[in-house]
Amino acid sequence: MTTLDADPRPPAAPAVAVDPALVAAEAEAHRLDAADPGHRHLFHLLPAEGGDHPEVAYFAGNSLGLQPRATAPELHEDMTTWSRIAVEGWFESDRPWTRYHELVAGPMARLVGARPSETVVMNTLTVNLHLLMVSFYRPAGQRTRIVIEDAAFPSDSYAVRSQARFHGLDPDQAVVRLRPRPGEDTLRTEDVTAYLAAEGDKVALVLLGGVNYLTGELVDIPAVTAAGRAAGAVVGWDLAHAVGNVPLALHDWDVDFAAWCTYKYLNSGPGALAGLFVHERHLGDPDLPRFEGWWGNELTTRFEMAPVSRPPATADAWQVSCQPILAMGPVRTSVELFDSVGMPALRERSIRLTGWLERLLDQITADRPLSVVTPRDPARRGCQLSVRLAGGSAAELSRRLRYEHGVIADSREPDIIRLAPVPLYSTYHDCWRAAVALAATVDRHPER
Predict the structure, then answer these.
(1) 339 burial type by CB count under 10 A (0-12 exposed, 13-18 middle, 19+ buried)
(2) What is the DSSP letter of 292?
(3) Whole-angstrom Cα distance, residue 231 to residue 257?
(4) Which residues, listed in sequence order, are joined to residue 207 by a DSSP beta bridge?
(5) What is the tally of helices (H) and strands (E) in the chain?
(6) pTM value?
């Protein structure tokens, strides 16, 4: 039998006694769900592969969101247009394909606190970051550095290093990785702004994650943006873990640019199209370099087939290729759902739900080799709580949670389990199940 053929499920573990107070909290979870139900009915739920419950308690929406029930029927409508009128769908369908991205721009702009002209959905996240850095990373003289966080998502690290090399720079010198203070897990805002105040004349670009993928920390985006721009640097943001998770106001915060994926909290499907923001002060700037393609032309002149591009004074100018309509549909479905529910209401529920999970975890982490590394202040985090497991494998713990308890969490080796109670579809009872599962799976300290 090969490794790929092996059964990933661990052998059944012996029963472990769980704190009676934690067991008793199940009734409170049910009461909270009755009073604060969320929108679980709008999503397809997964059957459990272990445990005593028919459905999975799903905490991996920070990696891939659940599928909205509306996605398949609405995608079928676009498929039907293709089968019914084929090429004429570009102009004659109910949702003409030439303008399909405009249907997404409005609700997406509202979600990130931007204007529709500043927002476009296209490509995938790292592709968009590269296209944006073509425009906004312009090293010159001593101003060559790119500032990122040390715990940046690997794709961001690879992207900025390759951009430095593209400009003939040594990435080990050009890329500055800011680290938390010794003994701490998250960056302090004052340490980021202090670095920019002291070294800002050497910084060409600040590119941080709005919510850190590993720790769940929500960075103070407006404060860091202001400090970076005051230092003369361009400030961009990777918002993969922020969009659909926390309220954003990119235009008012004076962010230069941002990019994000849509398959996590926005539930648009695996590898879904990504979003891009460019502040309006940069739109229509003829001196701003940009890679161009046919779809970045003004629609009114696009079919003149002229040899010289005429880009619009909007974020659409960063489009290069023809939009993939069938991939655009799930994004449209998702952002319209957020438009309907409203980010302020989701944020309020997120604070309540994540706070409940935190209180349950507090009951079990004190006497186990577990610690929550996410900031306790709700203003400094989204809905993710990252739990560090000392002396064990996060991947193995994740497998046991899934197959022994029907709880799907996300692991980041070597020692982090990420739990994301997503306010759209997670429940208080899901949180209770996660805490009970961790308590049953991770042994107490021997001396206790």
Answers:
(1) middle
(2) -
(3) 17
(4) 236
(5) 14, 13
(6) 0.94
